[in-house]
Write a structure and sequence with these properties.
It is built from seven helices and no strands. By secondary structure, the chain is mostly helical. Helix 6 runs antiparallel to helix 7. The protein is elongated and about 95 Å long.
Length: 139
């Protein structure tokens, strides 16, 4: 008796279209892994290699959750390092500090905004005292 059974007739044969097995870490887009690594590096306290505009070009716009994470990371480093504006602003850059301040303003977190404003003013003052020309236009 001849068996006419064929598995291909009963199971989808979409091996070329189904790539779920290649997504071991649950990350659908290759840049998602890079974005997560970026946030891990920022959390460790090292210098941020890209400004907000470059971040958007690489990974797309920051989500509300991303912004909230950046605010949390910034202020955890602020508390860990103390109130040294040079360390914070040199590592983060004024673009990130101002962007975080704008995010805090949009969420009406005015206490955090005042801390950020104080840090940028202190950074500008230290630059003037040391003879470096630092132009700060926070407005």
């Amino acid at each position: 008796m001849k068996d006419n059974f064929n598995w291909d007739d009963h199971l989808d044969n979409d091996d070329d279209e189904n790539h779920d097995e290649n997504d071991l870490f649950g990350i659908n887009h290759p840049l998602q892994l890079e974005k997560q690594l970026f946030f891990q590096d920022v959390q460790r306290g090292g210098p941020i290699p890209v400004d907000p505009i470059e971040f958007i070009e690489l990974f797309g716009p920051l989500t509300q959750s991303d912004w909230d994470d950046m605010v949390d990371i910034f202020f955890s480093l602020y508390h860990r390092w103390g109130m040294d504006s040079n360390t914070l602003i040199d590592n983060w850059g004024l673009d990130w500090v101002w962007s975080i301040q704008k995010h805090c303003e949009s969420k009406e977190e005015y206490e955090l905004c005042s801390v950020l404003k104080m840090l940028t003013e202190e950074y500008q003052l230290k630059g003037l005292i040391s003879g470096q020309k630092i132009k700060v236009n926070a407005g």
